[in-house]
Amino acid sequence: MPVVFVIEDLHWADASTHEFVRALAAARAPRLLLLATARTDCAEAWPGERMPLDRLNESDARTVILATCSGRPLPEAPTREIVRSADGVPLFLEEITRAVIESDAVTDCGDHFAVRGGQGDPALPATLRDPLRARLDRLGPVKKVAQAAAVIGRDFPLELLQAVWPHGSGETLARDLERLVAAGILHRRGDHFGFRHSLLQREAYDSTLLAARAEHHRAVVRALDERFPELAREQPQFAAHHLARAGFPDRAAPLLVEAAEKAVARHAHFEACGLLRAALAAVRALPEAPRRPAHEGAILLGLLRSVIVVHGYAAAETLEVCEQARAVASAQAPGAFQINSALVAFHTSRAEYSRALAMIHRNRDALSDDPDAESGWTANETIVTFCCGQFRHAIECAMRTVRLYDSVRARAPIMNFDFKVIALSWRWMAEALMGQPETGARCMAAALEHSAVAGAVDTIAFARYWALTGSMLLHDFDAVAAAAPGDLEYCKEFCLSVPLALTSILYGCALAHLGQPGEGLAMARRGYTGWLATGMRIAATGHLQKIAEACLAARQPEAAREFLGEAQRMLATGEEHWMCAEIARTEALLHSAAGAPDRAEEALVRAVEIARSQEARWLELRSTLHLARLRASSGREPEAHAGLASVTSAITEGTTRREFREAVELLGELGQDFQPHPIPQIA
Description:
Layout: E1 3-7, H1 15-27, E2 32-36, H2 40-43, H3 58-68, H4 76-86, H5 90-101, E3 106-108, E4 113-115, H6 126-137, H7 143-152, E5 155-157, H8 158-164, H9 170-182, E6 186-189, E7 192-195, H10 198-206, H11 210-226, H12 229-234, H13 236-245, H14 249-265, H15 269-284, H16 292-311, H17 316-328, H18 336-349, H19 353-366, H20 371-387, H21 391-407, H22 419-433, H23 437-454, H24 457-473, H25 477-493, H26 497-513, H27 517-533, H28 540-553, H29 557-573, H30 580-593, H31 597-613, H32 617-633, H33 637-649, H34 658-669
Parallel strand pairs: 1-2
Antiparallel strand pairs: 3-4, 5-7, 6-7
Helix pairs in contact: 3-5, 4-5, 6-10, 7-10, 7-11, 11-13, 13-14, 14-15, 15-16, 16-17, 17-18, 18-19, 18-20, 19-20, 20-21, 20-22, 21-22, 22-23, 22-24, 23-24, 24-25, 24-26, 25-26, 26-27, 26-28, 27-28, 28-29, 28-30, 29-30, 30-31, 31-32, 32-33, 32-34, 33-34
């Protein structure tokens, strides 16, 4: 019988075990596979084929983190910090993740974790700190060289270390560095050295006495000023880090802002957040001065933009930065409109629609003569009124937003989202629901074109998501499935967690309807859980209804009932009404699946009435189509025909779409052919 003999962590084995394994390997038994894992320094001494195990890539690292959290996702910020700190080592990923979820940094929300507060590196658990410290302690006097190098950074040129570490001769330093390389602390590439792992550098830095640490930072600053000015120009972040730690916050702050601007230019907003927080700390370390609030306000405004990209509008971090920015900025200061707009978006994103609408009216009154600001408030009102089920009002707001937007010549910097893109995108969805899908589609095409001109990655990502949403509302599952993979890749490329989660919901639901229920529902559930972790609640009833209907398509009525029940609870306690008709229709589908046609008909009648009251003609058509089928199945063909003919005759657009064609076919089956209206040409 073939035998597979597996030995984990051979480097920890005692001498007798080593001798036994060597003898086993030397025997080369034909039906024995000996598989051992060991550290590199141990594995090199063994015979046989060696297979180096590379560090995990980011995708695999995130999988380990999610598994360590028992499938309950962490927010994006701590996840990225764990990935960065662990540097691809599975043990480090697991231990740091456990330390984070057991700390005060996050709150356990049952099916996900939410950020409680605090920024910066995740705490290093004792299970990692102790062995790392022991490795450094075994170095003896050479440890001090490692500590000086750690102050410079994870990677450093030999020439800079020589300037920071003046003790002994160059030959002595070279020998010490070779010892550190041999001990596996450093690796070497020509005249450049680097710590083999970020946690080794971090532990070496943390174990350095504060006085020695400050002196090393001052030595780096002197070296940059006197010998490496080009390095400071090329790497402002590096120079700023040492200036701040050496006690020169006045010089550090502008360099940190410069580095943050470069990070934003390459869409590295997570990095920009850290840099701007450091710049803010540097400015606040300066003595009080007349211009300090202006500097602080400008940094906070930049920080707010990047925080929104990384965490989303609904995150606690967004509110925290908004409040700080508003505290240092006057009502008429540059950026006041952007701050207040972000606050409105915060409340809208959390489905606090009355509060958001009150803020819109209050700010609109204060800036009534500014068409640029007015276009922003009206764009926000478009979203709020849509979510409240006032589709015609939303369309009117969207049209007014575009008129105002196009009338402005000098536009203030936007807070992440272009108002014209918002207006056109939400008009697409409203027009689709009101039975004007072709008009809406033209609006969406214009929104996508304009988003490409605007150029902000989050504007582009959300425009693409809103395009998918309209297709999903029209039950165009093929269109969603065709576009979603590219949209997901775009979100991943720029680390946009909110549109990534939302697009995953839509793509998963579309796959479930298209015959891939397992993969589709798993993706939709992951997307919804990830979306909840961002703090977002806007349009939650719609997400729940879509997943519930996808569960029904996958013949999972119990799961559908769970999601629909949550949507109904939100309807009962919240202000969101845009999906009321669809929730009632999905309830009817559940009753039909359970063999309760009377209750199904009651729910469908309610769905039709709601859709009619909201002027949502396409939703009225959909529910009426279901109702006509139900009535026809019980021998009530005339009643079925009358209701369906009435709503179908009022539809003037979308006559080639599947649901309309099905309605026409059913009318023919019920005894009367139907001639659709020609589609009018709308400018």
